[in-house]
From TrEMBL:
Keywords: DNA-binding, Transcription, Transcription regulation. This is IclR family transcriptional regulator. GO terms for molecular function: DNA binding; DNA-binding transcription factor activity. Gene3D superfamilies: 3.30.450.40, Winged helix-like DNA-binding domain superfamily/Winged helix DNA-binding domain. It comes from Mesorhizobium ciceri.
Length: 261
């Protein structure tokens, strides 16, 4: 028992193996690129022998994965998937899924529920829309939040201090310095408009239409983005789809907290 624990009168308990495993996971989560065993050992101030068995155990439980060519380790999405089972995540999914289905049916387009996770956006749910074809991103798909339409919308609806912290997390993953002044200007515009609609930066022929999902504290807990397929033989209904999306996000926010709106 540590001296400070004795002074406070509160017992503490040591679990060295658990602590070691958590240290490995936290180090990999903060790293910009996969790390070799040597790099992990150096980052934790331990020897390779000390962490070898822990890496094997974490790999066997599918919390981390090793690149056979580089021998470098990285996190899998298992921790994220476990996080989807928390009460708050379950509340979000329960409120959002019927509305995603409604958006898909009304717009004939595919809506995606997106959350922010350590500087990245992650698709947590999607419903295919369209009479003859659909465009959907795979569940778990993620990218740098400051590069994504859905990420911008989530960032735009945060308190200033929270937004700064989240942008710092994005910067840790960005290969180039962020233009924070330009980013903050764009976020102010999105917040004033209440949505963001723009041509996709990834896919030709896709228009991103995105609105926030507001949580009980008044900040965005997620965003819903419709990847609108523009077709030569169909009239584009961007404005109509935006109204469908905004109404759905409002209803989800009401379900999460009746006092929000």
């Amino acid at each position: 028992m540590a001296d400070d624990a004795k002074e406070s009168g509160k017992p503490t308990y040591s679990a060295p193996a658990l602590t070691k495993g958590l240290d490995v996971l936290e180090l990999l989560a903060e790293a910009r690129a996969p790390l070799t065993m040597k790099e992990i050992a150096e980052g934790l101030g331990r020897s390779k022998n000390e962490i070898f068995r822990m890496l094997i155990a974490l790999q066997e439980r599918q919390y981390i994965e090793r690149n056979a060519e580089t021998d470098a380790y990285s996190l899998t999405d298992k921790l994220f998937k476990l996080g989807l089972h928390t009460p708050s995540a379950q509340d979000l999914m329960s409120a959002a899924m019927p509305e995603l289905t409604r958006i898909a049916g009304d717009s004939n387009q595919s809506p995606h529920l997106v959350v922010f996770n350590h500087g990245l956006t992650v698709v947590t749910a999607a419903v295919p829309g369209g009479e003859d074809m659909a465009f959907t991103l795979r569940l778990g798909y993620g990218r740098l939040a400051t590069d994504a339409t859905s990420g911008h919308v989530i960032l735009a609806f945060q308190p200033p201090k929270v937004a700064t912290r989240m942008i710092d997390e994005c910067a840790a993953h960005s290969p180039a310095p962020l233009d924070r002044e330009a980013l903050e200007k764009q976020l102010r515009t999105i917040r004033a408009d209440g949505y963001w609609m723009r041509e996709s930066r990834d896919f030709v022929g896709i228009t991103d239409i995105c609105c926030p999902v507001i949580g009980p504290d008044g900040s965005a807990v997620a965003s819903i983005i419709v990847a609108y397929i523009n077709r030569h033989t169909r009239e584009s209904r961007h404005a109509f789809t935006l109204e469908v999306l905004r109404a759905a996000c409002d209803r989800i926010s009401m379900k999460l907290s009746p006092k929000v709106r």
